[in-house]
Amino acid sequence: MLENAIYGSRRYWIWVFFLLSIIGAGMLAYLYQFKYGLGVTGMSRDVSWGLYIGQFTFLVGVAASGVMVVLPYYLHNYKKFARLTILGEFLAIAAVIMCMLFIFVDLGQPLRVLNVILHPTPNSVMFYDMLVLSGYLMLNLLIGWTVLSAERKEVAPPKWVKPIIYLSIAWAPSIHTVTAFLYAGIPGRHFWLTAILAARFLASAFAAGPSLLIILALIVRKYTKFDPGKEAIQSLGKIVTYCMLINVFFLGLELFTAFYSQIPGHMHSFVYLYAGLHGHNQLVPIMWVSSILAAIAVFMLVFPQIRKNESLLAVACIATFFSLWIDKGFGLVVGGFVPNPFERITEYWPTLPEAIITMAVWAIGFLVLTILYKIAISVKEEVVFDKYGERQIKAE
Amino acid sequence: MDRRKFLKIAGMSSLLGIGGFSVANTVRNDLEASQIKSNPAALTAKRWAMVVDMSKFKAPEDYQKCIDACHRVHNVPAGSDNPKHEIKWMWPDTYEHAFPGNEDEYLAEKVKDMPFLLLCNHCDNPPCVRVCPTKATFKRESDGIVMMDMHRCIGCRFCMAGCPYGARSFNYKDPRPHINESKQNREFPTRMKGVVEKCTLCYERLAKGLEPACVEAAKEVAVKKGTTPGLIFGDLEDPKSEVRKILSERFSIRRKPELGTGPSVYYVL
After folding, report:
1. What DSSP designation does A111 have?
2. Which terminus of chain B is more exposed, N or C, with fewer CB under 10 A?
3. What is the predicted pLDDT for the residue at B172?
C-alpha cells in the first residue's frame, strides 16, 4: 500500500514539498536551539513550559478524539462512520507523532530522553504518559493498517483485530486523562489543581478533534474522488456541538468556583488571562479571540439550520478548532505559571525560533497525515469505486 | 594449526580470561567499598533542617555573605544577560512574596521589609521528586536531603512546575561562560545547559564533616557582630539538636505548610 504515497498529482507534490520546506526551516531552528539551549525560547524560570508543552497537550486531545468515530462504528454499529474511521485513526497517528516530537523539542537534554525508560519511575505521571502515548500509537498503526489492507483485498478484516479495536476505544480517553494528570496533581498551581481538569480536557478534545476531522473530510471530498459521506459529517457536527457545549459548561464551572469562593489563588490566573493582572496583560487579546471564536462556534453549532449547511459547518469547525487551540495550546499552560509561586508575574511570549520549530512539528504531523491519507484514499478510491461506481456514495 | 595447539591456546586464554575477571572483580569490590565507606567525620542526621532566625537578618550585608558563599562553592553563575533565566540556590524576598496568602496590609513594617532568605525546603514529602520521570531528583533516605543528579536530568522541567516554592532553576543556556574562572570551585562540578539545579544542602560538605556553606558564612558574620548566627542547622528528629531547641522555644513559620509538603526550613521572627 505504501507505494500509493509516491504516486501523486502535481498538487500533491507541491503540498509535500511545501511541508518539507517548513520542516527544513524548523530543523535549522532546532539545531540553533540544540546548540544554544532552551534560552532561545520565550520560556523562563517562572514560566518553564510554553508553546511546546501547550501544543503537546492540545494534540493529545486531537489524538484521543479518533475514538469519537471509532466508538460509534464499532460499538454501536453506526455504519455511516465506516468510511470515516480510517481518517480518524490516521489523524490520531499523526497527532501522537506530533505529541512525541513536541515533548522531544521541549527537553533541555534531548539526548538523555531514554533515561525515562532506563530509569522507569512509576510515581511520575510522565512515565504513564509515555506508556499510554506509545501504546496508542501502536494500536492505531496496527488497527488502521490491518483494516485498510483487508479493505484493499476486499476481504473482511481479520477477527483478531476486533478485541484490539475495543482496547483502543478504552485506551483513547486514558491518554488524555493521563495528560491532564500531569497538571491536575501538582500542589501549589491553583489554575491546574482542579478535579475537573481531565473531564475538561476530554470535552475540549472531543470538540477540537472532530472539528478538525470535519475540515479534513471536506478537503478530502473536494480534492479526491473519495467521499467520507454527508451524513457522517453531519453526525460528527453533532458530536462537535455537544462536546463544545460541555466544554464551555466546564469552563463555566471553573469560573464559578474561582469567583464565587473569592479565593485569590483560584481567581488570579483567570484574571491574568482574561483581564490582566497588575498591569500585565499580554495574553488578554488572544484569550478574548479564543472566547469570541467559541461564542461564534457555539452559536453556529446549536442551530441545526446553520450546522446543516456544510460551508457554515466548516466555518463553525474552524472557529471551534482555533478557539480551543488558543485556550488549551497556550492559555492553559501559561496561565498555570502566572502568577508564580511568589505571586509575582513573569509574562511569556514565544520567540521566532520557537514559533518556527512549532510550525515545523505541525508540518511533520501534516506530512505524516498527508502520506497516510494519500494511502487510505488511494485504496478507498479503488475499492469504493469498483463497488459502487459513482462519485457521491449514498449512505446505506 | 593442529588440534593440540588449538586446545592449548583455548585453555590458556580461558584461564587468563577467568583470571582477568577475578582480578577486575577484586579491584571493583575495593572501589565500591571505598565509595560506600563514609568519612568518620561526616555530619549525619535523620532529617536535616534549617532555622532562619530573621532577627539576625536586617540589612543586605547580613545575608549577602550567606548567598555569596553558597553560590561560590557551587559554581552558580553570577548574573545573566537575561534575568528571566537567572539561576539561584539562595535568595532574599519580602514577607509578601515569601509567604503569599498571608500578606496583611497592617503587618508590622519591620516584618514587611524583612529579607527572608529562601532556598529549597528539602520537603519531607517533595512534589518535585514525585513528578520527576527519571529519579534525577530524589529524597535521600538517610537524611532527607532532596538531591539532584544533574547528569541524569533530561531537562523536562516537570519538577519546576511541581515545586510550589520556586526553588528550582533551569540552565536555559551554558552557564560556564558566566562563572568567574578565578573564583571557580574545582571540587564541585559546573553544570551544562539544559538541566535543572537547586540547593542540595551542601551534601558534599556534610560528607566531609563541614556545615553547609551558608551556615558557615552566617557563623562568621555572627562572630564579627558578636551575636548568635542567623542560620541554624541540625537534625529535626533529634530532640536535643539545636534546631529542635529553638523550635520548642520560639514561634516559627514555614512556607506553604498547607500543601502537605512538610518543608524543613523554618523561619523565626
Report:
1. G
2. N
3. 96
pTM: 0.91
Segment 42-81 of chain B within 8 Å of chain A by CB: none
Whole-angstrom distance, CA of residue A206 vs CA of residue A199: 11
Per-residue DSSP letter, B267: E
What distance in Å separates the CA atoms of residue B109 and residue B226, rounded to the nearest whole number? 26
Looking at residue A394, what is its pLDDT?
44
What's the CA dihedral at A255, A261, A264, A266 to 10 degrees?
-40
Q: What percent of the residues of chain A are helix, what percent strand, and what percent coil, each to the nearest 5?
A: 75, 0, 25
* Rounded Cα distance, A218 and A223, in Å: 9
Please give the Cα distance from B165 to A48 (Å, whole number). 14
Cβ contacts of A207 within 8 Å, gap of 6 or more: A240, A243, A244, A246, A247, A320, A324
Element housing B93 (H / E)? strand B90-93
Residue B63 φ then ψ, to 5° = -110, -20
Contacts of A86 by beta carbon, 8 Å cutoff, 6+ apart: A144, A147, A148, A376, A380
Distance (Å, rounded) from C-alpha A58 to C-alpha A328?
Answer: 6
In this structure, how many other beta carbons lie within 10 angstroms of the beta carbon of residue A304? Answer: 12
pLDDT for B27 = 54
Task: Reduce the DSSP state of residue B50 to 3 states and report it.
Answer: strand
Chain A nearest C-alpha distance from B192 (Å): 9
d(CA A365, CA A359): 10
Please give the CATH number for the structural domain made up of A2-388.
Answer: 1.20.1630.10
Chain A: closest CA distance from residue B152 (Å): 7
Pinpoint the alpha helices (H) of B45-94.
60-73
- ipTM over 0.85 threshold: yes
Yes or no, beta carbons of B164 and A125 under 8 Å apart = no
Domain positions in chain A are 2-388
d(CA A44, CA B227) in angstroms, rounded, equals 39
β-bridge pairing B265-268 and B48-53: parallel
pLDDT per 10-residue tile (average), chain A, 396 residues: 83 95 97 96 96 97 94 92 91 96 96 94 94 94 92 89 94 95 94 96 96 95 88 95 97 96 94 94 96 97 94 96 96 95 95 97 97 91 61 43
Kindly list the structural domains of chain B, giving each domain's residue range(s) and its CATH number in brackets, ordered by start. 48-268 (3.30.70.20)
